[in-house]
Amino acid sequence: MEAGFSEMRNELQSRDALWRRIQLECQQLHTELLKIREYKDMQEIQIKHQSSCVQLTEQLENKNAELLLLAQSQEHQQEDLNKIRNHLYRGEQSHCSEQERMKTEISDLTEELHQKEITIATIMKKASLLERQLKMELEIKDKLLAKQQLLDFQYKVIESENTHLKEMV
């Protein structure tokens, strides 16, 4: 996008330079036109130089035609220049608003990431606590199971002795 803007700026500068050259030529032509008119006026006073006057008039008409063409060309160049400026301005505005949108989005995502990191840290603490609690409960249950097995074994031993004693009686 930057390359497009740079290219548009270069085109704008090129057209500005062309426009200035056209204005300078117009000023020169205008000065020349004034000189030709002065010369023409002098020639009209001097009747013997009528042929030169006709020639100057033709030159004047040619210069006027050139001046008109240059003026029209200048108008078109100015219109093109204004279009390019407007396009460049809209592009820059769009680029700036896109950058702002991206900054906002990055800020939002950073905040969301921070919140998720906090949530993960909290969950990890809770998971660690639950793991410790589960280990303690497992140890207690293992001890209770061992006691239960011992009691079962003792019960079977007593029951076996009881059965043996009953048989003896």
Automatic annotation (TrEMBL):
Signal peptide start and end residues: none
GO biological process, one term: de novo centriole assembly involved in multi-ciliated epithelial cell differentiation
GO cellular component assignments: centriole; cytoplasm; deuterosome
Coiled-coil region(s): 57-119
Alphabetical UniProt keywords: Coiled coil, Cytoplasm
Subcellular location: Cytoplasm
Alphabetical list of PANTHER family matching this protein: DEUTEROSOME ASSEMBLY PROTEIN 1, SARCOMA ANTIGEN NY-SAR-24/CYTOSKELETAL PROTEIN SOJO
Identification of the protein by name: DEUP1 protein
Source species of the chain: Oceanodroma tethys
Source organism phylogeny: Eukaryota, Metazoa, Chordata, Craniata, Vertebrata
The gene coding this protein: Deup1
